[in-house]
Design brief:
The structure is a homodimer. With about 350 residues, chain A is α/β, with parallel strands linked by helices. Helices cover about 40% and strands about 15% of the residues of chain A. Chain A contains 13 helices and 14 strands. The longest helix of chain A is centred in the C-terminal third of the chain and has 22 residues.
Amino acid sequence: MVDWKNPPRLFIPGPVHVLPEVLEQLSRYTLGHRGKEYSQLHKETVDMLKQVLFTEQNVFLSTSSASGVWEGSIRNCVDHNETVLCTMCGAFSDKFADVARSCGRNVEELKVDWGQAITPEMIDKKLAEGKYSAVTIVYNETSTGLTNPVYEISEMMKEKYPDVLVFVDAVSGMVGLPLHFDELGWDVVFASVQKAFAIPPGLAVFAVSNRAMAKSKTVTGRGYYFDFQQFAKSAEKNQTPTTPVIPHIMALNYQCAKLLKEGMENVWKRHSQMAEYVRGWAKENFDLFCEEKYASNTLTTIKNTRGIVVGDVIKAIQTKHNTVFGNGYGKLKEQTFRIAHMGDITLADVKELTGWISDELK
Amino acid sequence: MVDWKNPPRLFIPGPVHVLPEVLEQLSRYTLGHRGKEYSQLHKETVDMLKQVLFTEQNVFLSTSSASGVWEGSIRNCVDHNETVLCTMCGAFSDKFADVARSCGRNVEELKVDWGQAITPEMIDKKLAEGKYSAVTIVYNETSTGLTNPVYEISEMMKEKYPDVLVFVDAVSGMVGLPLHFDELGWDVVFASVQKAFAIPPGLAVFAVSNRAMAKSKTVTGRGYYFDFQQFAKSAEKNQTPTTPVIPHIMALNYQCAKLLKEGMENVWKRHSQMAEYVRGWAKENFDLFCEEKYASNTLTTIKNTRGIVVGDVIKAIQTKHNTVFGNGYGKLKEQTFRIAHMGDITLADVKELTGWISDELK
């Protein structure tokens, strides 16, 4: 029986499982968003996020899913007569291009098959045409479980196209994968908190470079809700332009303190250990959907080489263990399935889940 | 000492005080937003909201503050060559006009002094010019504590300008004041949940008429995050287009059930009783900022006729009772102060607070 008050434990690639002590942070007494208590919470949290993201530039909190910052990055940083190069390798990078078009911008697609990576060479070849002011990239494609080689891409961009802005969707990458914002030379990066931050959905975190802030001043029709200038103005007072989702910011404060205590290198290592385990299990029982060198450390997409009925296995495990993992996304449904291993999910949790799936295969 | 983990009880006009049992709803285990559990929660909640708002048309949940729907109403329902008449009588109705301009639309202002109401006659006179496709109105101006005569305005609009769309900011009105969406003939109405719904901030509720939905199909550059067409498409599956703020939707479900059990007429009456008490106290000790017939039933703005230092009184009551009320908004700071009486605040709470303020006046 479907009962939202007694939901299954989540191993889908977001929203992910949230620990009870994190959930408790959401039920603290709320604050006046123009009062000193909120400013204190905001400053503490943003200061920690700057350490998490290795940046001394601008970090903002958006009361929205990260999809809102797809729109924000385009409306703020791409002028109406400019063209943006959208790299596309899965459902979410594809949608980033749709959003750019829905904002009335000129879009050119750099598209590979789902499961393939976007390489520095591909981007270089397109940018050599000289007509692009910005590039969109997804760090970690949640639909295919693929991590694009963003460090290599960024090296190439900094060397050959230093004036082209870089907008990175790091929704399922941030925290789980290395992210040195300033060093990478990115202009906008964003993520929702229901992925590796391991908080329920409702808040997005984003960083903006100083040069992207300057650019946004020159673009008209930015609107209001995602106007980076409004965010910057409010940030001076440790506030947000509109009333923020305070419960989630409290939980984010708690999680950032935990991350920094652990150390980001250790956090990334923990994710990679879980990923290695799941990849090993996947190769033993099925196969990886992506080439292994691009396989993500926050979720694994497994190729259904045995032709199991994925939906049935999910249902069986939900019935027996009140736990769900992810079917393939969109057109990859049943052809693949997905196991999340990010946030506060542990290696022990993942071993338990893969054990249950193995039991169903017998 | 400022400590966000031990904040004062809120009598500011939003965020308002939230009951512990409502806060607890936020810390339930979260859901997969594409799973059956979420759809069940979504459908239950939207069905109740339709009763709360007296509508059989479209009700949507936006993971944003209501400010996002300022932008959404404009981007979806005002075409690029059309002109919108923005009625302005305080900080928030003024901002609605700014937002319309920031979306690149033509705006004409109908402006009165803060504390004055917008009347049907004023709107009639402007609309007679024949050049407007839409009108923006704030139901209840949170900055001045004024309720516009929206039922009379709507009667006039339906009779004389049935083709002009009506967008209503009901941020501090919804739930606390009568709102029969279909009968009023409005096209968009919206509110944040941190006002009379008495939930922490992070979620907006909005209703859209069928004709506004049809109109939005014809407008280009709507973007993605607030695209009404995306909301409608997802609503067919009892979902939202982007990952929603699930903890708040759980709390909204809880609050809607409570409201409907009480009955909306009784809810409105309860608000009017608190308001009458506060107005009585205000007239005895100070004066009302607005003409009494326009004074709001969800908050009272009091004219500081005695020249007290409002900030000092707020500080004193915070120190003694860990409770805060609102100073005047913006340019009305110190000239006025504001007491919220909406949501789960009770008459006993309000009597206690006004008693404490009276003590400070001695």
